[in-house]
Amino acid sequence: MALAPHHRKRLIFLLKLAVSVVTIALLVHLIDVDQVTALVRRARLELLALSAAALIGQTAISAFKWRLLLRAQGADVGYPALLQAYLIGDFVNLFAPGVVGGDAYRAAWLRQHTGTLGTALPSIIVDRLTGLSALLLVASLGLGAIFLPRYAWAVGAAVLIALVVGYLLAIGPVDRWLGRRPGGRLGGVVAMARLAIGQIKPSRTLVAVGLLSLVFQFNTVAILWLYAQAMRLSIDFSQLLLAVPTVSVLEMVPISVNGIGLREGAFSLLLGQMGVPAAQGFVLGLTVSVMRYVAGLVGGGLLLWRMASRRD
User: Fold this and answer.
1) Residue ranges per domain, the chain?
2) How do residues 94-122 score in pLDDT, each as one tens digit?
């Protein structure tokens, strides 16, 4: 007998929660808990407060990038409204059962302003694509910094060139292939894909969005380095250049609640391979999880304010 959709979602959430709880329990059993406790007690709260502000700044960068993409489509939505939608989307991501809950909220919110998903979804898709490309570039710099420290920038430059050349070679054929697709059942999907392709064709907007994506990813690494300083961890910036993009990709695997457990285990394992004690990797991952919820309170407050305004 098939489960009803709401029962299936509840079961999936419970399974993810079990994965998070079991993984955290296993990590606590394997690492030095006394060392974790000592690190937490010595935390520098002023640096954690600064990092929380930096997380809001991250969202501000994302909202500005989203505005550039929307303006390229002819949709001129005010920046303050987009920033609020992004902050609320980040809050939704913390509690939604999937990994795209925040994106779904932003798409639904933007549809109210534009009247169609044809404007909302392509901008969000392109936002994700440029972010992943920047993530790959940062990871290549991290690999170079650790294994070829004298040629780290050369490694990054080589990956950047490969990305640009691959993009230029693929964009035209993909666009032509989509243009030959018939309508039918997939007509809406093809039309949406063509709109997204239109946004990633060579343009000043795409260059600006790409640069903002790169700034965003470097800023993410800087925020985690700030966490490391706040928790007095012996983790170098170059180590985070590799670890942060890798963990970010692993977090996308939808087998735990908001990446909790996976994140802590991944940091413990990856940084442990670089000579960092496992307890420090665990503390870093735990700090990331906690600070996301702390920063998410801003979006939660905005959501409650909007709900209250509608009732009034």
Assistant:
1) 37-311
2) 876 555 677 788 888 887 776 666 666 77
